[in-house]
Amino acid sequence: MALRRNRPGLAVCAIGCAALALTACSSSSSSSSSESSESSASSSSAAKTVTLQFWSAYNTTDAEASTMANVVIPQFERENPGIKVDSVVYPYADLLQKFLAAAAAGDPPNIMRSDIIWVPQLASQGVLLPLGNLPWYSPIAASALPGPLATTKWQGQPYALPLDTNTQALFWNKSDFKAAGLSGPPTTLAQLYADAAKLTIKSKQQFGLGVDGTDIWNVAPYIWSNGGGFTNASYTSATGVMSDGGTMAEVTALDNLLKAGDIGSDFRGGSGAVSGETGFPKGEYAMYLDGPWAVPTYTALQPPPDYGIAPVPSGTAGSISTVGGEDLVIPKNAANLAATEKFAQFLDSQFAQLAMAKVGQMSAIATYGPQEVSATPYYSIFVQQLKTAEARPVSPGYTKLDTDFSNELAMIIDGKVSVSAGLSAAAQQSNTALSGS
């Protein structure tokens, strides 16, 4: 665990100056003058240097944290003499609670990389600085992708900057498609479901489709693409949306595929379930949705699977996937705001965004897409998919809402409740989550 560095206090400086003065009394006048000048210059330099605390949960097992610490931050410090940045990395599971505790104690970091689902929770608790009136906010917002930008707002006001993002696309096994007489990946949801049945070979434990859980992240692309949803536009109610025709149609379609044996164990989950990312390269799933992080995993396999990546198949509403990623938040009443603002803007600059994109942090800024693809060609489908990707409900109650929906969907596919009854119950429970009750 990274620890915060103690900043030098005024008392320490005073003691140091007194010690220098005593030493000077036993030296020659020229030495005294020289030491006095050096001390004055050193004190002046220290007084002008601002140190910012930047908290994150960057991965320390790959190049994420090291690229931020050794590439991005040094470049910012070169461009901004007098500002130092202390990058403090915490485990993801600890970061939110540490931030809340620090904010409550009046000693938060200057800036934090926040999971997108934390932003409405933090904003509703009044611990974040609203950004809408800052003069540099609008140009960044105007250049951001709409899905990631939606994650930064609470009750119509922006409380964060979009930083990095990700989404899903369709991974399909070329060998399985060829063996099934299919020329390429499905382009519509209807074709996806038909192909899943053709690609299923029960004697080989090969399933046409993998769906990695009943949570919103995994099922939203099917539901949104067919015109369904989870809440109204203001994130205040799930009634009439979570249980509407589009949502019911897609839940019914997925339930029917599972009952026919065309979806694998990942959908139900539990002991013995095989995730899409694990089963896909082994031939257990012919298709599934996943993010760009899967590509390096498959590239490292010997031999790598023979696969392609395609957009999420379209329904009546188009091809829509789920937005993931992180945002930048600045605590309310944080110290050194001017320096913090400079660092926040820099993290959304071309240099910082493209440096982090090379290590898997796709940019939330739309204009950097072509450069990302040039440096990392397999980003191409994901960059395209992000143009229509949607944010999950931006609400402090999202985690509970997601759990309520996921639990009811699990009961539906287990045959314990009907689709209609399950989604109606999920909507009622979600209303409570959205109201904060």
What can you see in these coordinates?
The structure is a single chain. With 437 residues, this protein is α+β, with helices and mostly antiparallel strands. It has 3 domains: 1-48; 49-166 and 326-385, D-Maltodextrin-Binding Protein, domain 2 (3-Layer(aba) Sandwich); 169-322 and 397-435, Periplasmic binding protein-like II (D-Maltodextrin-Binding Protein, domain 2, 3-Layer(aba) Sandwich). 46% of the residues lie in helices and 11% in strands. It has 19 helices and 11 strands. It has helices at residues 10-25, 29-48, 64-79, 92-104, 119-124, 137-143, 146-150, 174-179, 189-199, 216-225, 245-259, 276-279, 294-299, 337-347, 350-357, 369-375, 380-385, 398-413, 419-435; strands spanning 50-56, 83-89, 111-115, 153-154, 157-158, 161-166, 169-173, 287-290, 307-310, 324-329, 362-363. Strand 1 (50-56), helix 3 and strand 2 form a beta-alpha-beta unit. Helix 10 crosses helix 11 (245-259) and helix 18 packs antiparallel against helix 19. Residues 1-45 have low confidence and may be disordered.
Characteristic terms for this protein:
437 residues; alpha+beta; D-Maltodextrin-Binding Protein, domain 2; six-stranded mixed sheet; three-stranded antiparallel sheet; globular
Secondary structure elements and their pairing?
Blueprint: H1 10-25, H2 29-48, E1 50-56, H3 64-79, E2 83-89, H4 92-104, E3 111-115, H5 119-124, H6 137-143, H7 146-150, E4 153-154, E5 157-158, E6 161-166, E7 169-173, H8 174-179, H9 189-199, H10 216-225, H11 245-259, H12 276-279, E8 287-290, H13 294-299, E9 307-310, E10 324-329, H14 337-347, H15 350-357, E11 362-363, H16 369-375, H17 380-385, H18 398-413, H19 419-435
Parallel strand pairs: 1-2, 1-3
Antiparallel strand pairs: 3-10, 4-5, 6-10, 6-11, 7-8, 7-9
Helix pairs in contact: 1-2, 3-15, 10-11, 18-19
